[in-house]
Amino acid sequence: MARRPIIAGNWKMHLSIAESLALASEVRDRCSRFRDRDVVVAPPLTSLYAVKERLADSRIQLAAQNCHWAAQGAYTGEVSPTQLKDLGCTHVIVGHSERRQYFGETDEWVSRKVRSLHDHDLVPIICIGETLEQREAGDTMSVVSTQLEAALAALSGDEARTSVVAYEPVWAIGTGRNATPAQAQEVHAAIRRLIAKRFDASVADAVRIQYGGSVKPENAAELLTQPDIDGALVGGASLKSDSFARIVSFREELA
Ligand code: PEP
Questions:
Q1: 248 C-alpha vs ligand 1 centroid, how far in Å?
Q2: Domain harbouring 91, CATH code
């Protein structure tokens, strides 16, 4: 089954509103022509509204980088799925390793957020991945399967089908050291088998699994043409429209 590629740019805690608008305009101009793939940008919270306006009537979709699971409440400093929906977001990144590592995000929180996002008709981009220590100890698959199982625990098959999983080996994030296409493919195929076991083959076949970790124009095509890699979650290289657009156009770069 041909899955529609999804390439997302995570701008993290970078860019002013003016800088975000400039980048959004360039991404819109360079990436809107690709009708056979999804292109998503995740600006910082402070720029979401402005970027949403800038991307109005374009094919580029909008993601937030995090959320709370509650629809509203006394949670100072947090933002809810309802509010993100109101802002025009279509996707929300959850469980990014930086949130797990620096802000104590747990599997249980990820599970609640993923459940809530589906309740609010938002697509979760669920990040999972092992640290270098865990890989070297031979624990990659047990780490990834524990994280995945928790994230999908409260979902029906149909909800899982429309979720996006991002396999991001922590040792490859922001380090310039990407997983080889073979290393990434091996884990992606295993993730798909886990989803088939938890739900069924048709769900596993439909779920899109992005690779993330130092994706650049130079390595994108090789990674994104692996059979179980359906797109990329891009950090550093998404901050320049030229490199992001070259990743989005991985198929054309091959030609
Ligand atoms: C990320 O933060 O999700 C990421 C993959 O970052 P980078 O592309 O910079 O490694």
A1: 15
A2: 3.20.20.70
Q: In this structure, is residue 1 part of a structural domain?
A: no
Distance CA 255, CA 249 (A): 10
Q: Is 14 a catalytic residue?
A: no
Average pLDDT, whole number, for the chain? Answer: 97
pLDDT over threshold 80, residue 233: yes
- Per-residue burial over 86-119, b if 16 or more Cβ lie within 10 Å, else e, is eeebebbbbbbbbbbeeeebebebbbbbbbbbbe
For 127-192, the DSSP string reads EE---HHHHHTT-HHHHHHHHHHHHHTT--HHHHHH-EEEE--GGGTTSS-PPPHHHHHHHHHHHH
Q: How many domains does the chain have?
A: 1
Please state the rounded mean pLDDT for residues 219-241. Answer: 97
Ligand 1 closest atom vs CA 232: 5
Q: How far is the CA of 74 from the centre of ligand 1 (A)?
A: 32
Query: pLDDT (tens digit, 9 = 90+) per residue, 36-90?
Result: 999 999 999 999 999 999 999 899 999 999 999 999 999 999 999 999 999 999 9
Which range marks the domain in which residue 76 is found? 6-254
Name the active-site residue from 105, 130, 159, 168. 168
